[in-house]
Amino acid sequence: MPSTQKKSNVIVYTKILYILLHSIQIMWFLVSFAGTEVMGKDTPEQHKVHAKEAVEQEFKGWVERMGARYDAKHAADAGDSLASTQTYTFANQLRTVTTKTIVVDQKGKGNYKTVQAAVNSIKQGNKQRVVIQINPGVYREKIKIPSTKPYITFYGPAGAAKTILVYGDTAAKAGSTSLSASTTVMSDGFIARGISFRNSAPAPVGGAVGRQAVALLIQGDKAAFYTCSFYGAQDTLYDKSGRHYFKNCYIQGSIDFIFGDGQSYYEKCHLNSIANPGSGSLTAQKRSSKGEDTGFSFVGCVVTGSGPIYLGRAWGPYSRVVFIRTYIEDLIIPAGWYDWGLSSRRKTVYYGQYKCSGPGANTKGRVNWSLELTDAQARPFKTISFIDGASWLSSL
Ligand SMILES: *[C@@H]1O[C@H](CO)[C@@H](O)[C@H](O)[C@H]1NC(C)=O
Fold first, then answer.
1. For residue 103, what are the domain limits?
2. Phi, psi of 247 (to 5 degrees)
3. Distance, CA 368 to ligand 1 centroid (Å)?
4. Which of 138, 172, 258, 315 has the maximum number of C-beta atoms within 10 A of its C-beta?
5. Does residue 4 belong to any structural domain of this protein?
6. pLDDT tens-digit profile of 373-385?
7. Catalytic residue flag (residue 256)
């Protein structure tokens, strides 16, 4: 055989091998789940095809309900500026609430040397805000705030770059996705400012089962995060349940890196993908019934990094995610959204974009079960009324 022939054979075999490996990788991704703990919990009931008309009716009703709420609270604010949220600053909160401050300092210049020791010192059933001031340092510890200790603030005066809470568990090592979290917040009324939440487990290949590694799990109601950062790969931020507000935060990951059944408003956040080619999704929202008010609304955010990734995939049958006035780099799979391999979900999810910009925002090629939102459709998601924020954010 002439050597050029041999060469071309080698090229063909290499290509076949490449295609084979790539197919395996894609299959991994398709069968992967955001949480091993939820495997098998999706009952046939949830997969059932729901009558399309009923669902659309429900969406319409919800949009009207939320719209009415918005109109009542923002009667004077007819435009769609974000100005109405600007009074909810951390400074206001520090001024307006009675606080007790506990200082955590690794060099012994505070009350405690670890964050968990400070949390442990707070009484169960705490009724007053307690600020845990965390001085600069890398705190390598697994932190948990139980549900019995509400109104805790983590405050890093040196900022997120210098105030780092990190651990390195994975779902396989810890027992479940939830248990992999470096920091777990089960209580209501949590506030964090200037804190970096990290999971240092090495980034896995796309969607590997058991490699979920959560940086922060938030399960309490009424939480607010200001200028915080979240670093991980697969499943970085477990926005599990409750109403949450994220402002000026940085969130990094690869697969489903903002996931859960939270009802959350992400304002001016930077979402950065570190996905390997062919293996990522920015969100995996888990709304499981039409009666739930949950969903993720991203407003005025920026999406950057490596792709291609989906904007979201439907962990729950009624998954709801919208991007509003968000700049999106060229890293999005044109289809935009993935139904989790369950076509019935196409009829019940609520996925949309509104006045987004950047090459990744181009809606040409999007699945026809996602929406380019109208003004009326976008309205319920555009302000903190999406999380009922006016009733709790300023008095947190
Ligand atoms: C949506 O797209 C699919 C496949 O691309 C097509 O089969 C279906 O008819 C479309 N549905 C509507 C309502 O346009």
1. 32-391
2. -130, 135
3. 6
4. 258
5. no
6. 999 999 999 999 9
7. yes
